[in-house]
Amino acid sequence: MHYVVIHELCHLIIRQHNKAFYSLLSELMPGWERWKLRLETNNPVASQIP
User: Fold this and answer.
1) Where are the domains of the chain?
2) pLDDT of residue 26
3) Do 21 and 48 meet the contact criterion of CB atoms below 8 Å apart?
4) Which of 21, 23, 1, 20 is nearest to 10 (CA)?
């Protein structure tokens, strides 16, 4: 859940999924990739969203 909140808060600053966005996300939540994968793996609906 924290990953989703931080991800969306990053969008308040940077709207696109670009290098700057992921840099900010990494700064605020190191290891976010692990949480994203966990969310996609354990949530069949989220894993279908492109």
Assistant:
1) 2-48
2) 97
3) no
4) 21
Q: What is the pLDDT along the chain (50 residues), one digit of tens a residue?
A: 799 999 999 999 999 999 999 999 999 999 999 999 988 887 656 545 55
Tokens of 13: 């600053």
CA distance 33 to 46: 15
Q: Do the beta carbons of residue 6 and residue 25 sit within 8 Å?
A: yes
DSSP code of residue 29: S
Q: In one letter, which amino acid is 2? A: H
Please list, in sequence order, all residues whose beta carbon lies within 8 angstroms of the beta carbon of residue 2, skipping any fewer than 6 positions away: 29, 35
